Amino acid sequence: MDYIVRMIAKDAPIKAMAIQGREMVQRAREIHHTSPVATAALGRTLMAASMMGQQIKEKDGSVTIRINGGGPLGSILAVSDSDGNVRGYVQNGQIDVPLKGPAKLDVGWAVGTAGSLTVIKDLRMKEPYVGTIPLVSGEIAEDITAYFAESEQIPTACALGVLVEKDLSVAAAGGYLIQLLPGASDADIDKIEAGIAQVGQVTHHLSQGVSPEELLRMVLCSFDLETLESVPVSYRCYCSRERMRSALASMGKEELRALIAEQGRAEMTCQFCDAVHVFEKEELEALADSL
User: Fold this and answer.
1) What confidence tens digit (pLDDT) does each residue in 123-148 have?
2) How many CB atoms lie within 10 A of CB 90?
3) What is the reported pTM?
4) Domain of 252, in residue numbers
5) Torsion angle of alpha carbons 191, 223, 7, 46, nearest 10°?
6) In CATH, what number is assigned to the domain containing residue 275?
7) 243-289, pLDDT tens digit by residue?
8) Are residues 152 and 245 in the same domain?
9) Distance of CA 14 to the CA centre of its chain
C-alpha cells in the first residue's frame, strides 16, 4: 500500500515527509502505457504532487504541478487532492530516449530544461496561488527544490526516485521532502546536507526495500525524529459521466448542435484515466434542448 509519513525533528526546526509510491506509479503506467523514461518522469511528478497536496489543510483544496520543459516527453501534469491522492498524464508517454548510463534513465533530457515548472494551489479562496519558475534540470526533484526556494521562500531538500524493471513494471518508487522552519541554524543545514550526501540516490535504497520512515531516519540521522502521522495515498481519478456531460453543456447550444450535425455522437476520453464516455445523438439533442 502506498502511503506518506510525516515527521518532525524534536531538537531542531525541521519538518519532513516521505512517500512510498510504487502502486500509484504502476497504476499510471498501466493507464497511459508509458515508456520507462516517461514512467519515471510522470511518477516523480505524481509523488511530488502527492506530498505537496498532503501539506494543504483545506479539505477540498488541490495542488497541480505542470511541467513544460521542451523535451520529447512534452508537458507533464499531476493533480493532487488534500489527502495526497493523485492523477496525471504525460503528453508523449510512449517516447523513449537513450540511457545516460548503465540502467540510468535520462529523465532530465527527456523532460528538457527550456521551459518552466508551474505549481497551482487551490486553497478554496477566490483565486488560486500560482507560482512559476524556470526549470533547473528537468529531473523533477531539483526543480521542486528550486520552486520552494524561489516561490515560497522555504529552504527545501527533495529527492524522488522510480525504478523500472525490464518488463516495464515499476519495481519501486518513493522519495522525501525535507523543509527548514524559521529559526534553523547553519549547523542544522550542514547536518542535513551531510545526511543527503551520505544517503545519495534514493533509487538504490528503494530497491533494497527501505521504507519511507527508514529513509528519513537515514537522511536526518543527526536529529531526534518524531513520527506525526502515516496516511494512505493512491492514484485516484474523479472523472464521471456527469462531469463529462457538464463539459459538453459548457460548449453552448450552438456548438453542441454543430457537433451533433458533424458526428452524430460524442466520445469523451478522460486524460487522467483513459475512461471513455459515449453520448449518443438522442442524449446530445436532449442536452442541447435543455440549455
Assistant:
1) 888 889 999 999 999 999 999 999 99
2) 27
3) 0.89
4) 241-290
5) 30
6) 3.90.1280.10
7) 888 888 888 888 888 888 888 888 887 888 878 888 888 888 888 88
8) no
9) 23
**Angle between helical axes of 141-151 and 36-54 (0-180°, round to 10):** 30
Residue 102 has pLDDT above 80, yes or no: no
Do the Cβ atoms of 119 and 100 come closer than 8 Å?
A: no
Q: Average pLDDT of 79-107?
A: 90
**Does 152 share its domain with 198?**
yes
